[in-house]
Specification:
The protein is an alpha+beta fold. The protein contains five helices and eleven strands, in the order E-H-E-E-E-H-E-E-E-H-E-E-H-E-E-H. About 25% of the residues lie in helices and about 25% in strands. Strands 1, 2, 3, 4, 5 and 8 form a six-stranded antiparallel sheet that branches. The radius of gyration is 22 Å and the shape is elongated.
């Protein structure tokens, strides 16, 4: 049996940059967040361009919001985010001034923190368009700790002036609004395997057949995807050609696990379908 995941808290991180390669800075920050201990990146919004606010003349910003799950406390996460900021060249010289990267904890589960160095929910986040718009994009059902919903109409500061697209290197895992002008880049099937057939397809002549399926990404456990991986090995050991479509993703050091929910399928060529089911049935009786 797979060990159950330890307690994790869902946290929403605001990212901003208006110096240097803005989108590149956001990508570097996301990669660093994905490498934090006991933390997994789950999804990220598109990048929005917004007007600076706070009375300081400076370049326009690039903003995004990421959602992560973590075993850290909020103050530990804050310290880690500040270390990432420093590693990416953040220099704090002027209040509300320009910066290479800005990482803010917007929400941390249903917790509320009031300390000199940490306030959660983030102060005035509900008034800032560059926070509320990408936050609602990454999670339309997000609520404040008191259960109240976010209202886009209330966010009048930091006006959004454009959409820059996905964070570089994170297009596969970028959440897009239903009315988005451009969808994320399509997933590509690995190698030379035939693209997977739809689970609801009525095409009895499809060359590949789905044997099992599971969901990966977002708040789902790794257990379903890992079970498919085990069964893939069982089939391959029996000499049966098999593939998981799309490939499973697991969080690990150096590999950020940013992903929106998607269905993955264990598939075999049609001529091996009956044999594959028999092999897996026999494996199940052995506890595999």
């Amino acid at each position: 049996m797979l060990e159950e995941q330890r307690h994790r808290t869902l946290a929403y991180i605001g990212l901003g940059s208006n110096l240097g390669d803005r989108s590149g800075n956001l990508a570097a920050a996301l990669s660093a967040i994905g490498e934090l201990p006991d933390t997994e990146g789950l999804a990220v919004s598109r990048v929005y361009e917004s007007e600076p606010w706070g009375g300081v003349e400076q370049p326009v910003y690039a903003n995004a919001v990421a959602v992560i799950s973590t075993e850290m406390r909020a103050d530990q996460l804050l310290a880690s985010l500040q270390e990432i900021e420093e590693s990416l060249g953040r220099v704090r010289t002027e209040l509300n001034g320009p910066r290479t990267i800005d990482l803010d904890i917007l929400l941390f589960g249903d917790e509320e923190w009031v300390r000199p160095d940490l306030t959660i929910p983030h102060p005035r986040m509900l008034e800032r368009a560059f926070v509320v718009v990408p936050l609602l994009e990454v999670d339309p059902n997000v609520v404040m700790p008191d259960g109240s919903p976010l209202q886009r109409e209330r966010a009048t500061l930091g006006r959004i002036t454009g959409v820059l697209g996905a964070v570089p290197g994170f297009s596969r895992v970028t959440v897009t609004s239903p009315d988005a002008a451009e969808a994320p880049e399509p997933l590509e099937f690995p190698g030379e395997f035939v693209p997977a057939v739809d689970l609801q397809s009525d095409d009895g002549d499809a060359p590949w057949v789905t044997i099992e399926s599971a969901t990966q990404g977002a708040l789902t456990s790794h257990s379903g995807a890992m079970q498919l991986q085990v069964h893939l090995g069982v089939l391959q050991s029996a000499g049966i050609t098999a593939v998981i479509d799309p490939p499973p993703m697991f969080g690990s050091p150096g590999l950020p696990y940013y992903a929106i929910p998607e269905r993955i399928r264990l598939m075999v060529p049609r001529e091996f379908a009956q044999q594959a089911r028999q092999v897996l049935a026999e494996a199940a009786t052995r506890g595999q």
